[in-house]
Specification:
homodimer; alpha/beta; Isopropylmalate Dehydrogenase; 10-stranded mixed β-sheet; two-stranded antiparallel ribbon; 12 helices; binds 3-isopropylmalic acid
Chain lengths: 355, 355
């Protein structure tokens, strides 16, 4: 089992090191190889996704990814900016199914902006389509406006697109995930305005017929953004497109108050996957040894479960994380009075010990 | 001064009746004419925006709008559905500047999902571009996919577009609004992925140079969705496109916990405007006399201010609303122990009395 380890920028290397530590302690005989990506890829090879890094990722069973991005790359041309590495990997590997859990750990309920009773026990799984929609749709670019309010003016444009089979496959992923949970799926669309999401709604409804044990409801994206704030526990599995999923999955993560705890997985149809924390590269705290490695460690657990067929090892990691939380160990981002503040490496060590 | 009164569906007629009551009590010599819109337009004339209603709206100085929509119209073809009336009015009148305040009234702080210290005193103004973006961009439709992941498959698509002058005019609106407030603007984009929003970001930055007294920052839409939950008071004026504005303005409204209090205004370059509550038509409580008319009454105040040049009258209404809140009067949606529950009409009467 071969794993491409892509630490990236900012706190990426620190948090990935702890996840690697945990994986090694499990003695699963994983073959891990590291390569630069994002700003680090640009520094090393002039491109955020150097060909050698892409090749390593393509040949691996799974990718353990840290985070990319730093202010110092903000002035580069768009194709050279760190985030292009993520988009490039998603596209090259066809990673269409993004799993974004938003879980509120009972020890961390107080960290949420929301009143405790609204988030205690929260456990939402957002399933975001990741290779279609307006993220990749052609044509796109700049031009002279051919019509519209200001014909002749400078214009920029993008194309939102979904085909029936793209919607079908992500709908199947969502319904199958729901079958293992509380058997409820909320499909989020904007069918009242967008042709793309009218098709989305139609196709999800059709696929639903193959899952009579799962209850489906439809919600407009603006309403979903509201209901997440008002009553987040009404949601279980949420499935939506790439753009809406980007916004709603981040909103949902933040509801928990502890985005430093939330992993993610992005899978293709061969169960190859990219695993990364839901949070970003946090360049402001990079190198200080204070970042929370738990989201990355939990991403490694998802990797064992989804791509490497190692359910037992995945559960071991998850139980170990629960244990260190119960022991009161906290990195700075989730620290509160009465708990013990630890560094990135101390947290990784504690998880290893708790395995 | 001529006002088109379009009550619409659900609770629309009830809440608009109270706003009309308040306007009449001010004795401003307003000429008000009522016409059906939304589902009511469909019932009366076979179209959500009957030609006579549109004509009335076009000839008026301002439109006082209730709300549209009811489940019973969900099965109609899209062009006949109630919400097409709103889209049609925005387009026909060129109502490009949507003002969506998210204010947390001190008496209602407890109603928010968020912890009181995070929302007490919250006062955000979201300025949403309302006639461009993917809402109206052509081409759009269904077709056989010409390329992409599944060439040949059934596909639906929409076009996101913005021209430079469209972005310029909404940016001016935002900077000028900020000059009257705390002189801060956050422009929300997705320039890291979308060509349209790279142009957006560039143009907003250029326009900012004409407002050296206003501080501008840029934020990605996914991050904005998070920061609204994490630290809403960091925002003052937020400016964004039609699609992102739809999502973020609803998210922000819900943060206050009292969406029944929030007005909105949609203006064109002649200061003609459509004024409506931020909430919907709530068909489940229609006809019961329990809906909160205050968002509509406050929309009438915005109408006096923005379209009718009656600042003093606008302030009178706003002060009266503050007064009834201070008196402890509450409709069911904002009721809490120790306050006095009143009906829709009683609330309208109380505002009139407090004028
Ligand atoms: C960095 C960016 C391109 C990316 C996205 O928008 O998909 C990020 O926000 C994410 O959600 O992984
Ligand atoms: C009804 C719908 C078309 C509309 C929109 O998306 O603009 C509504 O959500 C709004 O925000 O006014």
């Amino acid at each position: 089992m071969k794993i491409a380890v892509l630490p990236g920028d900012g706190i990426g290397p620190e948090i990935v090191a702890e996840a690697v530590k945990v994986l090694e302690a499990l003695n699963l005989g994983l073959e891990m190889e590291t390569a630069p990506v994002g700003g680090a890829g640009y520094e090393a090879a002039g491109h955020p996704l150097p060909p050698a890094t892409l090749k390593l990722a393509q040949e691996a069973d799974a990718i353990l990814f840290g985070a990319v991005g730093d202010w110092k790359y903000d002035t580069l041309d768009r194709p050279l900016r760190p985030e292009q590495a993520i988009l490039g990997l998603r596209k090259a590997l066809g990673l269409f199914a993004n799993f974004r859990p938003a879980i509120c750990y009972k020890e961390l309920t107080h960290a949420s902006s929301l009143k405790p009773e609204l988030v205690a026990g929260l456990d939402i799984l957002i399933i975001r389509e990741l290779t279609g929609d307006i993220y990749f749709g052609q044509p796109r670019g700049r031009r002279v406006a051919p019509d519209g309010h200001f014909p002749g003016a400078e214009e920029a444009f993008d194309t939102m697109r979904y085909t029936r089979p793209e919607i079908e496959r992500i709908a199947h992923v969502a319904f199958q995930a729901a079958q293992k949970r509380s058997k409820r799926v909320t499909s989020v669309d904007k069918a009242n305005v967008l042709e793309t999401f009218q098709l989305w709604k139609d196709v999800v409804s059709e696929v639903a017929k193959q899952y009579p044990d799962v209850a489906l409801d439809h919600m407009y994206v603006d309403n979903a953004a509201m209901q997440l704030v008002k009553e987040p526990k009404r949601f279980d599995v949420v499935v939506t497109g790439n753009m809406f999923g980007d916004i709603l999955s981040d909103e949902a993560s933040m509801l928990t108050g502890s985005i430093g705890m939330l992993p993610s997985a992005s899978l293709n149809d061969k169960k190859q996957g990219l695993y990364e924390p839901s949070h970003g590269s946090a360049p402001d705290i990079a190198g200080k040894g204070i970042a929370n490695p738990l989201a990355t460690i939990l991403s490694a657990a998802m990797m064992l479960r989804f791509s490497l067929n190692q359910e037992a090892a995945a559960q071991k990691i998850e139980a170990a994380v629960q244990k260190v939380l119960a022991q009161g160990l906290r990195t700075a981002d989730i620290y509160s009075e009465g708990t013990t503040k630890v560094s990135t490496a101390q947290m990784g060590d504690a998880v290893v010990k708790a395995l």
